[in-house]
Amino acid sequence: MALQTIYTVCFLLLSLTCAADPYADNFKRFAAAVPVVTYAISDRSADVVVEKLVLGIWESEITVKTPIGLLRIITPLIGRNNVYNVLAAVATGLSINIPLKVRMVAATIQD
Asked: How many domains does the chain have?
């Protein structure tokens, strides 16, 4: 079984928690005083969740469902671990009220 690294970030004003983390409920209780934003690949109850995922050898195509709409991201980052990183970034943007349109522009910038 592959080792899965799950990150939970708790600031004074918000908490980001991966819904797939077996300790997610504990983190939510710990951070109950601040808004909690969850993200996941397959847990439909998460605030930020993958609607469609295509993992290729050169890129990942991720359609993300958020409370304010869908976001399509094509990134050269590959693998499920990087999908979690992308979801955490989207959840962070969502939690600090960055408009989805701005996130879409940032997601399409290439080197």
From this structure: 1
Report the distance separating Cα 19 and Cα 8, nearest Å: 10
- The domain that holds 94 is classified in CATH as 3.40.1190.10
Is 60 exceeded by the pLDDT of residue 96? Answer: yes
d(CA 20, CA 41) in angstroms, rounded, equals 8
Residue 3 domain flag: no
Q: For residue range 8-56, list pLDDT tens digits in order.
A: 454 445 666 777 777 777 777 777 766 778 889 988 988 999 999 999 9
Name the token pair of 76: 């050269």
Q: What is the pTM of this model?
A: 0.74
Q: Which residues pair with residue 40 across a beta bridge?
A: 49
Q: Which of 1, 3, 4 is nearest to 85 (CA)?
A: 4
Adjacent-strand bridge partners of 12:
none
Neighbours of 1 (CB within 10 A): 3
CA–CA distance from 19 to each of 8, 13, 100, 101, 110 (Å)?
10, 19, 21, 25, 29
